Amino acid sequence: MKQIRCPLNGLRNIDEFVYGGEYHPVTETADTDSRQWARQVFFHRNPAGLVIEWWCHAPSSYWFLAERDTRSNEMLRTFTLEAFLAMKDAAQ
Amino acid sequence: MALGLLKSAFPRAGAAHLPDRPSLKPSYDVVIIGAGAHGMAIAYHLARYHGIRRVAVLDRGYLGGGNTARNTAVIRSNYLTEESVRFYRESVRLFRELSNELDYNILFENRGQLTLAHSDSDLRNFRWRAEVNKELGVRSELVDLAEVQRRVPLLDCDPAAHYPVLGGLWHADGATARHDAVVWGYARAACRLGVELHPLTEVTGLEVSGGAIRAVETARGTIACDAVVQAVAGMSSEVARLADIDLPIHTYPLQALVTQPYKPVLTPLVSSPRWHVYIQQTSRGEFVIGGGCDPYPLYQTRSTLDLKEALCRGITQLFPFLAEANILRQWGGITDMTPDYSPVMGHSPVDNYFLDAGWGTWGFKATPICGVTMAELVASGQVPELIRPFALERFYTFDQVNEAGATAASH
Fold first, then answer.
1. What is the ipTM of this complex?
2. Which of B237, B247, B300 sits opposite A71 (nearest CB)?
3. In angstroms, what separates the C-alpha of A21 from chain B's closest C-alpha?
4. N or C: which terminal CB in chain B sees fewer CB atoms within 10 Å?
């Protein structure tokens, strides 16, 4: 069975994990108009290629991020949210 | 001598009803991206009923090599919303006449479809669907356990089962057909009317200026055109992105399998939303078994043991004799799932760029009506009434057509 390296629990079988959707920063506020809000809710990138996404290790309820290639199904790396945000800051 | 005899016995055996791939012209009236059943149906209707014959159908691969060949060939119209029932009802009607329309046998069989109820809430939901269906002239009814047993004698109806069968939604209009024949029939008829089929012609770019589509860039050259239709189930997001169009789609594989052949024992198509599994026996005797989508998005048609195990677990609960069956083939198809389990059809934000997308797990059964309505849209610029509810705009106005209950794993 395919395995995922959880930042908390190490290498575990994929059936212990739940997919949580594409990572997309939420920017809506009380003033966001409904059109903009619809974009945030329904319209994601859905790329054939590299994507950052949320995964949860269900037995420990632990959420983390992963980078995956949706053409090859290769999980390139996994990281905690903190590590991911720090990397993003460093890149900017 | 022997060879000569063979030749006369099999005149052009296996040879095609289709012309060789022509060279690509510098311009067409309409370019259709995707040579699946939808694309060919749209091309056929443009040529036959709207006099638009300068049409090129482009495909990265070959005719009907994508989800047309990978779906499980279920035809039905027992949906929940009025919009969907009207749309699929018309599609089922067109399917019945399709062999005559195309002069090509699509092996249409009106077998009926049975969706199994395993709980009180299933029964209530099915009752609701049956009432909506009946109101709109679609043959659906709630049936009790005795009727289920009569129609499917091999079904395990043990009341002590993990999910006992309580009854079902009987849909007399449910049917199946040979999916490859559908696209071959449309392609042959379209090409006879002058439509050009261009396999192995990948679209690499879309030229938009002044808010309208101007040209399609392909690996074999650029084509100027007045209108483009994208009909690329499984690649909708990526192709639309070439024109800077965002779609509300997530792309998942759906896996299916086929067993060894048996003598004919199962007439209707049977599905169990509770077990996430559905089954039909083909006219060759094999059992086609399919289920829900993979649990995470992917653009890959690989098969996995865990999904196959889940399908087999469900189907052997319903039909215990299948525990002895060998699996003959397995495959995956790529489904473009929308949030409301309904398609995205009609205009796009780019003028003269038309969408036939978001076909998730419900594309095959809509093939003929897509041909009719999309061709009408392209030819007239007016959105036909039947597909108005499926506009992309509905996601911005929160006016979705919710078919999650009538669609998920119950094709």
1. 0.94
2. B300
3. 8
4. N
Statement to judge: residues B326 and B257 lie in one domain = yes
Mind listing the domains of chain A with CATH numbers? 3-91 (3.30.2270.10)
Burial B330-340 (b: 16+ CB within 10 A, else e): bebbbbbbbbb
Distances (CA, A) of B208 to B30, B169, B213, B237, B239: 15, 48, 4, 17, 13
- pTM for the whole thing? 0.95
CB pairs under 8 A between A and B: 51
Amino acid at B38: H
The pLDDT tens digits of the residues spanning B333-391 come to: 999 999 999 999 999 999 999 999 999 999 999 999 999 999 999 999 999 999 999 99
CA dist., res. B117 & res. B97, Å (int): 32
Contact residues on chain B for A42, CB-CB shorter than 8 A: 248, 339, 395
CATH number, residue B298: 3.30.9.10
DSSP-based three-state secondary structure for A25: coil
Residues making up chain A, counted from first to last: 92
Q: How far is CA A38 from the centre of its chain?
A: 20
Å between A55 CA and nearest CA of chain B: 10
Judge: B396–A34 Cβ closer than 8 Å, yes or no. Answer: yes
E-only strand ranges, B100-247 = 113-117, 140-144, 167-171, 175-176, 196-198, 203-209, 212-218, 221-230
**What beta strand segments (E) does B231-324 contain?**
250-259, 269-272, 277-281, 287-293
Q: How far is B308 from B314, CA to CA, in rounded Å?
A: 10
Q: Please name which of B343, B345, B380, B348 lies closest in space to residue B46, comparing C-alpha atoms.
A: B380
